[in-house]
C-alpha cells in the first residue's frame, strides 16, 4: 500500500516514523489548496478560532507574539515581510480540510491533533524550533525554505528574549525549498525552521502524544476512583523485624509494587482513559447537539444508497471492545453498547471512516436497536448526511 508517492506505508512506518525526517517531493500531485489565504485571515477574525501572529521584528522585541481574534485594521497595518499568521484547527471549520486527514489513516486517528494553517509573506517564519509531537508539513501555496537540524534534548538552549520556544542556535544539517504538493515529515524533538520565499501557505498535521506524567496520573485517577478505605496494604506472612525494625525490606517493597501493578494493569481501565483523553476536544464549545431531536421516520428517507454519513468536523472518535461490551468514545464521552455483530460492525464503519456510504449500512439497520443507536449519534450531531 502506498502512502505518498513511491513511499509505502510499511517503509514509512519501519524506517521513518518517530525515527528520522523525510521529504517527499510531489506527495500530493497537482495539489490545489481547498482554502485561500483570505479565508484563513477571515477565520482569524472570529472569536471562536485560535489564531496567532508572529512578527520576527516586532515593535517591542524580536519574535513578538500576538493572539487573535484580529481585526481587518490589524491585517492592513502589518509589514510587507517577516510575519506569519497561524490558525489552528482549520479542519473543524472547513470540511474539505478535514477530508485531507484520510491521507494519514495509516496512523491511528485518535492520535491526530488538528490541521494548523500558516500563511506568511516573504521572510515569514516562526523561528527555529522543535515540537514534542510528530508533524507532517504540506506545502499548499508558494514556496518555503526548510532547514533541518539535529534531534534536540530537553535541555537544549532556547532564546531568553521571547516567550516563544525558539532555539538559541541551530546547526543546519539539510536544506530544501519546497513547492505545492511537497510533504515534509518531522519526528518529535527534531530542530526545523521554515522561511517563506514568497506569499505561501503551509498545512501542519500534528499528532497528539500524552506525556508519561499524564498517563500515570490519568490511569491512577481512574483506578483509585473504584477503591475504598478497605483496600489497604497487607503483609500476611510477615517475618520478624526485631533485627532492624526501621528497615523497609525488599518484601515490603514488592508488596507495594504488587498493589500498583494489580490496579494499573486493568486493560479496560487503561483503554477507557486512553480513549477519553485522546478524543477530548480542544474546542468543546464548537460542538452542539441538535436543538430539535429527530425521529427515525424523519431520517428514513436518507437511509438510501444516494447518501453517506459524515463525521462532524468537530468530533474525534475512538473505540474498543471487551467481552460482551463495545466501548465508543466521541469527544471524550463514553458510550457502551451490547457487542452484537450488527451494532459492532455499524459503529466500526462509522468510527473508522470520515464518510460512510449508507449503502454499506443497509443490511445492518434491520432492527430497532441499531436504528436507535444511529439516531442518537445523529441527534448528538456527531454525524450528518451528505448526498453522494
Please describe the topology of this protein:
Layout: E1 2-4, E2 7-8, H1 9-15, E3 22-24, H2 37-43, E4 51-57, E5 62-67, H3 72-76, E6 83-87, H4 95-99, E7 112-120, E8 135-141, E9 144-151, E10 174-178, E11 183-186, E12 190-196, E13 200-207, H5 212-225, H6 250-264, H7 267-279, H8 296-299, E14 307-311, E15 317-322, E16 325-330, E17 333-338, H9 341-352, E18 355-357, H10 368-379, E19 383-387
Helix pairs in contact: 5-7
* Major sheet characteristics: 8 strands, antiparallel
For the biggest β-sheet, the strand order reads: 3-11-8-13-7-6-4-5
Number of helical runs?
Answer: 10
Per the CATH scheme, the topology name of the largest domain is: Jelly Rolls
CATH class type of the largest domain? Mainly Beta
CATH architecture of the largest domain: Sandwich
The named CATH superfamily of the largest domain: Cupin
Order of helices and strands: EEHEHEEHEHEEEEEEEHHHHEEEEHEHE
Estimate the global geometry from the Cα principal axes. Answer: globular
Structural class: alpha+beta
Query: Proportion of β residues?
Result: 25-35%
- How many beta-strand runs? 19
Number of domains: 3
Q: Compute the gyration radius: what is it?
A: 25 Å
In helices, the fraction of residues equals 10-25%
The average pLDDT score comes to: 94
Low-confidence stretches: none
Q: Cα distance, first to last residue?
A: 26 Å
Amino acid at each position: 500500500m502506498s502512502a505518498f508517492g513511491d513511499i509505502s506505508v510499511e517503509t514509512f512506518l519501519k524506517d521513518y516514523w518517530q525515527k528520522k525526517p523525510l521529504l517527499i517531493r510531489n506527495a500530493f500531485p497537482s495539489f490545489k489548496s481547498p482554502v485561500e489565504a483570505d479565508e484563513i485571515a477571515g477565520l482569524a477574525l472570529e472569536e471562536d478560532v485560535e489564531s496567532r501572529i508572529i512578527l520576527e521584528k516586532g515593535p517591542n522585541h524580536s519574535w513578538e507574539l500576538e493572539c487573535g481574534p484580529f481585526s481587518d485594521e490589524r491585517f492592513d497595518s502589518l509589514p510587507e515581510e517577516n510575519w506569519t499568521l497561524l490558525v489552528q484547527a482549520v479542519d473543524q471549520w472547513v470540511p474539505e480540510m478535514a477530508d485531507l486527514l484520510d491521507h494519514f489513516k495509516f496512523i491511528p486517528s485518535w492520535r491526530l491533533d488538528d490541521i494548523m494553517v500558516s500563511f506568511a509573506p516573504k521572510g515569514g517564519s516562526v523561528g527555529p524550533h522543535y515540537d514534542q509531537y510528530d508533524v507532517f508539513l504540506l506545502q499548499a501555496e508558494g514556496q518555503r525554505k526548510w532547514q533541518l537540524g539535529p534531534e534536540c534534548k530537553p535541555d537544549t538552549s532556547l532564546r531568553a528574549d521571547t516567550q516563544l520556544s525558539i532555539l538559541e542556535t541551530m546547526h543546519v544539517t539539510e536544506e530544501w525549498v519546497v513547492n505545492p504538493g511537497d510533504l515534509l515529515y518531522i519526528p518529535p524533538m527534531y530542530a526545523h525552521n521554515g522561511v517563506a520565499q514568497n506569499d505561501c501557505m503551509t498545512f501542519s498535521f500534528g499528532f497528539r502524544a500524552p506525556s508519561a506524567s499524564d498517563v500515570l496520573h490519568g490511569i491512577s485517577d481512574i483506578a483509585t476512583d473504584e477503591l475504598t478505605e478497605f483496600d489497604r496494604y497487607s503483609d500476611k506472612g510477615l517475618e520478624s523485624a526485631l533485627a532492624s525494625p526501621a528497615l523497609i525490606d525488599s518484601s515490603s517493597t514488592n508488596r507495594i509494587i504488587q498493589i500498583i501493578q494489580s490496579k494499573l494493569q486493568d486493560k479496560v481501565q487503561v483503554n477507557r482513559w486512553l480513549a477519553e483523553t485522546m478524543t477530548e476536544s480542544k474546542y468543546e464549545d464548537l460542538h452542539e447537539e441538535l436543538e430539535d431531536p429527530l425521529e427515525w421516520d424523519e431520517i428514513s428517507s436518507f437511509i438510501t444508497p444516494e447518501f453517506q454519513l459524515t463525521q462532524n468536523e468537530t468530533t474525534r472518535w475512538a473505540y474498543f471492545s471487551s467481552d460482551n461490551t463495545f466501548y465508543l468514545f466521541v469527544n471524550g464521552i463514553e458510550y457502551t453498547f451490547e457487542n452484537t455483530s450488527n451494532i459492532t460492525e455499524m459503529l466500526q464503519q462509522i468510527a473508522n471512516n470520515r464518510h460512510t456510504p449508507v449503502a454499506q449500512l443497509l443490511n445492518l439497520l434491520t432492527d430497532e436497536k441499531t436504528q436507535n443507536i444511529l439516531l442518537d449519534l445523529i441527534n448528538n450531531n456527531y454525524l450528518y448526511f451528505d448526498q453522494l
